[in-house]
Amino acid sequence: xxxxxxxxxxxxxxxxKKLKENVDKKVRSKFEIAKSDYIKNFVDHPVTxxxxxxxxxxxxxxxxxxxxxxxxxxxxxxxxxxINDLTMFIKQNFxxxxxxxxxxxxxxxxxxxxxxxxxxxxxxxxxxxxxxxNSWVAAIERGIxxxxxxxxxxxxxxxxxxxxxxxxxxxxxxxxxxxYFSLIIDKFLKRVKxxx
Length: 196
Known about the structure:
Layout: H1 6-14, H2 17-44, H3 46-52, H4 70-74, H5 82-91, E1 95-104, E2 107-115, H6 119-124, E3 127-128, E4 131-135, H7 136-142, E5 150-151, E6 164-165, H8 181-193
Antiparallel strand pairs: 1-2, 3-4, 5-6
Helix pairs in contact: 2-8
């Protein structure tokens, strides 16, 4: 009666160049889809669109109850494009690296290391234009002070050219925090965790 050495077979399969190439191709394809979704969810987010629209955009994120817009409220400099800079950073910071192939029970497993722009990375490059050390990306979700004094009107001397902080309180209410990158990152992580 013939015998099969399964350990030997598994080792040969594990070391198969064709297997590794096929698996690598599938993993990289799914990773690229997850990466594209991350970027698309960022580009399509109302906060992104509103800031991209500049100092005269409408408050489609509804963070300001329809009064003014995030570009002028945050105080970005007129003519600047914070979303372009952020988009470039995001696209350049996705990496996929194959680490090792090993046998676990009856299965052959291949480990990959994934790097992506996380909340900490994003906060490190998105300083408030008027408040060093604090991030506008973080503030979108945690809250931004000054809404009760924010007046949306043409003001050429101001940073954005379309907003000023009045000395006296002009309204009640406050800025409405909204999910931004925490939502985008959660969706990305759920997708990559299901890569098989």
